Amino acid sequence: MSRSNGNDSYSIGDSPRGVEKNLDIGFRWLTLILAISIGLILLSIAIIVAIGAWPAIKEFNFTFFNNSNWNPVEDEYGVIAVVYGTLVSSLIALIIAIPLGVGAAVFLSEDFLPEEIRTILVFLVELLAAIPSVVYGLWGIFVLIPLTKSLGTWLNGNFGWFPLFSTPPTGPGMLPAGIILAIMILPIIIAISRDSLASLPPDLRQASLGLGATRWETIFRVLIPAAISGIVGGVMLALGRAMGETMAATMIIGNSNNLNISILAPANTIASLIANQFAEASGLQVSALMYAGLVLMILTLIVNVGAEYIVNQVKARYE
Amino acid sequence: MTASTIGSLKRNPSSKRAVFGSIMTGISALCLICTVIPLFAVLYFVIIQGFSRLNTNLFTQLPPPPGLSEGGIANALIGTLVVVGIATIIAVPIGVLAAVYLSEFSGNNKLALSIRFATNVLSGVPSIIAGVFAFGLLVSSGIVGFSSVAGGVALAVLMLPTIIRTTDEALKIVPQEVRWAALGVGAYNYQTVIKIVLPAALPGIVTGVTLAIARAAGETAPLIFTALFSNFWPNVSFQGLLEPIATLSVLVYNFAILPFKPQQELAWAGSLILVFLVLGTSIIARLVTRKKVY
After folding, report:
1. How many Cα atoms occupy the beta-carbon half-sphere of A31 within 13 Å?
2. Can you give the pLDDT at residue A1?
3. pLDDT value, residue A316
4. How far apart are CA A266 and CA A260, in angstroms?
5. Which residues in chain B have their CB less than 8 angstroms from residue A274's CB?
6. Is some CB atom of chain B closer than 8 A to the CB atom of A172?
């Protein structure tokens, strides 16, 4: 569907017309160049991070990935501990957020409540996404950490034999970080799951109800299976967000670069490692941090592009 | 037909299926409630803790030295305006005109599809990576050093996807007939776009830009190693743009982790301002988009 009129060849040809025609061509070129610059920005982000990381890539190569030491004093760097922290804190976030998010999405996409109340609730969920992450971090330090400390003490007391709960909670750690990440990714999961449920053809619902299924039988056996790829796409986008989320995690994960399996112990993520050390880093440390940034970027790119692909597949099927 | 089968056509609230349905409804409602609780919990604490510190000093004075009370966060407020202003000046023209290409001139060709894809990928780039990008592009290369400009570039990268997407959507809503009418009376494409289509889409575009600005004002991660921080008044000159500058979000971060009560109070007050900035714009944006030109 082209909106250009494309046929300017019959212009009368006196000079103001000529100027306008050049302006027209110029304007189109300008928009085209700026549009292409979006792609170039994306590309230059990758290139600049890679160039910055290059000295560290040369120095450490793949030992970067099986070394858990992050020691600026001896210029020895490895990311296994922070990669573990990134993945596990995101995983905790997903475990909490998926059931809550999908449940809430179902509640908001079906007509359990009058339209007006649903609109308000959807808006409240959107506001949840709008609160700056540094505010979540502040709230996490003073409200969430004391709360999870008692939960952590209980987990350690009763399930201390289990490696994930093997240390007594110190306050900051993977568990509160995972919870705050869950809060921050819930709006994405809800929004996308709700969209994919709402975009299902009404025939599906009617057919199922017509056969005598109850509303919840329809939801479980027809609607969720039909919308599952959209929901999975939303969950993956949320995972990408959780892995890249910086401030809230930095403020409450404890920033310990030691590898500790327990989720009650302080840990670190790639993003918080960068946030913590970048401003004061120098020499090879900057490069190592950029290498870590490159790893984070590749991880989130894979997850986001996969999510994008899945969500588009769903759109294509029902549009 | 017996009476019992006729009876079974009515909803029987004690049947297994009906009970299962009610339980599930309750569970899903509970999921939603659990989701919204943190919103109110955060708002409650930010208001309770931040409100007591809200006075005129907050908006007119510098932060006190560590451990001392009184003072304000005026330099961070100015700094946020400066950095976000720079980001807006960079991101709005690029974003709006790129969206004009996508919606008006591309005809949804392959290039437009890949640019939309790039926009989505860009919106998934972690904010801290935008900071690393600005650092690598401007600071470590020695072009500007730690400065409000570097911070502004990092924020601009984060604002772009939002601006492109909302402008793209806003332009799509403008009816095709409006364009045909303009072109039909002999207007060039650029005239149609600048004088007819963009004004018609303006409410939607302004909404998107405002939301992007509000989000950018709350961004912290890319600023802590591009704009850094400063305990002093920003330098009011062109040179000042090339120096480190305080911002509200970084102030909240820096002061939240200090062990001093006055600083923590300032962090809560800063959070209160940030939260009301973002929530206020979200609510206003919501009300504005209800009005339509066509």
Report:
1. 24
2. 40
3. 65
4. 8
5. 128, 132
6. no
**Which residue would you say has higher pLDDT here, B16 or A8?**
B16
Q: What is the mean pLDDT of residues A299-304?
A: 94
3 state SS for chain A: CCCCCCCCCCCCCCHHHHHHHHHHHHHHHHHHHHHHHHHHHHHHHHHHHHHHHHHHHHHHHHHHHCCCCEECCCCEECCHHHHHHHHHHHHHHHHHHHHHHHHHHHHHHCCCCCHHHHHHHHHHHHHHHHCCHHHHHHHHHHHHHHHHHHHHHHHHHHHCCCHHHCCCCCCCCHHHHHHHHHHHHHHHHHHHHHHHHHCCCHHHHHHHHHCCCCHHHHHHHHHHHHHHHHHHHHHHHHHHHHHHCCHHHHHHCECCCCCCCCCCCCECCHHHHHHHHHHHCCCHHHHHHHHHHHHHHHHHHHHHHHHHHHHHHHHHHHC
CB < 8 Å from B in window 59-98 of A = none
DSSP class per residue in B33-97: HHHHHHHHHHHHHHHHHHHTT-SHHHHHSPPPPTT------HHHHHHHHHHHHHHHHHHHHHHHH
B6: pLDDT strictly greater than 60: no
Asked if the Cβ–Cβ distance from B189 to A4 is below 8 Å, we say yes
Question: If we measure between CA atoms, which residue out of A117, A127, A129, A140 comes closest to residue A272?
Answer: A140
Q: Which two tokens stand for residue A36?
A: 């292409």
ipTM of the complex: 0.91
Note whether B257 contacts A51, CB cutoff 8 Å. no
* Tokens of residue A195, six digits: 């969209």
Q: Is the pLDDT of residue B147 over 60?
A: yes
The model's pTM = 0.91
Q: Higher-confidence residue: B250 or B67?
A: B250
Kindly indicate the confidence band of residue A315, based on its pLDDT and cuts at 50, 70 and 90: low
Contact B121 A305 (CB under 8 A): yes
Measured distance CA(B27)–CA(A102) in Å, rounded: 11
Q: Do B125 and B192 contact (CB within 8 A), yes or no?
A: no
| A1, A3, A96, A246, best to mutate vs chain B, most B CBs in 10 Å | A3
